[in-house]
Every structure is written in C-alpha cells, then in structure tokens.
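Input structure tokens:
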C-alpha cells in the first residue's frame, strides 16, 4: 500500500485540529453542559458544511446519490455525536494530553482491526509484526503518559 505524503500531512493537520477541537469543546461543555455542547458543535458544523456546499459550491459529489450509500455508512453521524460527547466528557476529567492519548490508542487499535479485516469495502492491510510492535510501543508510551 502506497503512502502519499500529502495524505499524511492532511492527516497530521486533522490531528492538530482534533486536539484544538477537543479543548474548545470541553471548554464549551463546562459552560453549557456536555450534551448541550455536543448539540452546539453539531449545529455549527451543519452551518459550516451548508456554507461550503451551497454558498461556496466546494462539493464535488452529489447528494442525489445518497440512496446508493449502504445503510451502515450513515452510522458515522451517530458515531460523531458519541465522539464529541466522549471528548467533552473526558478532557475536563483526564486532561487534554491524557484523554488524547487514550483516544489515539483506541483509534489506532480499531484502525488496525478495520485494515486487517478490510471492513466497509476498504483495501485489506493485514497485521504485521511491525504493526503489532508499534501498537505495543504506543500503548506503553500511553501508559507512561498517563502515569503521575
């Protein structure tokens, strides 16, 4: 599997945005409440995507194709709510670095499983000794990060 550098840079930028987003969402949650912050975050997200699609016409796809998407692909919206809620709940209690460490470890473990099985029509990328070792090292580093 080829790894284009541009895609990795975009992924790293998304990770940076996620750290800021989690911190901002947690601060909002302290003010208005956890579930309320989750709601507000999604409302703002809807406003931004409506502007991107209809005001700036940045979309390259077609919403008319929605009926062709498999039913399970719509679960991403529900997962988005769970993710925002979990971040808003965990960051004030665990701290940004600790919560982000736990998030990354869980995310990577799940990503390895999805890659290995080729779920959702994605190309299979089987486990290798190096991937398992990398996950073990990451988990060990996470354990050290969580230590007092």
């Amino acid at each position: 599997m080829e790894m284009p550098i541009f895609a990795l840079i975009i992924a790293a930028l998304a990770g940076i945005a996620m750290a800021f987003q989690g911190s901002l969402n947690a601060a909002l949650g302290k003010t208005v409440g956890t579930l309320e912050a989750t709601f507000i975050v999604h409302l703002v997200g809807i406003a931004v995507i409506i502007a991107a699609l209809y005001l700036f016409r940045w979309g390259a796809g077609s919403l008319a194709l929605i009926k062709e998407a498999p039913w399970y692909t719509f679960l991403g919206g529900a997962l988005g709510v769970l993710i925002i809620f979990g971040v808003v709940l965990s960051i004030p209690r665990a701290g940004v670095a600790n919560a982000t460490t736990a998030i990354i470890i869980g995310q990577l473990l799940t990503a390895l499983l999805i890659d290995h099985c080729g779920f959702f029509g994605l190309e299979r990328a089987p486990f290798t000794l190096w991937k398992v070792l990398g996950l073990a090292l990451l988990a060990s580093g996470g354990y050290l990060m969580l230590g007092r």
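The chain has a mean pLDDT of 91. The chain has one domain: 18-146.
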